[in-house]
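Methods — Computational structure assignment.
A single polypeptide chain was analysed. Its primary sequence is given first, followed by the predicted tertiary structure written as structure tokens.
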Amino acid sequence: MKSTLAAILFTVTAASAMAQSTPVGLWRNADDKTGEVKAEIRIAETNGALSGRIEKSLKKDTKPDATCDECSDDRKGKPITGLEIIRGGKKAEGKDVWEGGKILDPENGKEYRASFTPIDGGKKLEVRGYLGPFWRTQTWTRAQ
């Protein structure tokens, strides 16, 4: 009985820890300059590839019916809330990094190559966007 209970407890604890070491979940990103929380982004994984949507805009000056006017692809004119900003990205073999995806900045309509690395035990997510040899990194915090 004790060994069965210990095995169940170990399995639940291990599964919980593993679930936290992925980019999957609800995240909050902040403005690089002001530190103001901008949005909540829900990242999901389907068939090994990431996708992420803005679940809620938290910027004080964002209109509820704001659209992605700067986007130049199929997302042009789509509402910011619900907008898919992450497409693709697969787990790198032997690493806790998801790479090969794209991330969209809805404020300027630009899409960047991206990588996603869970840090701090999965409580934070290092999101790096690349444009040529240059990159910018943001640290998102887990909302759940």
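Note: Confidence is low (pLDDT under 50) at residues 4-19.
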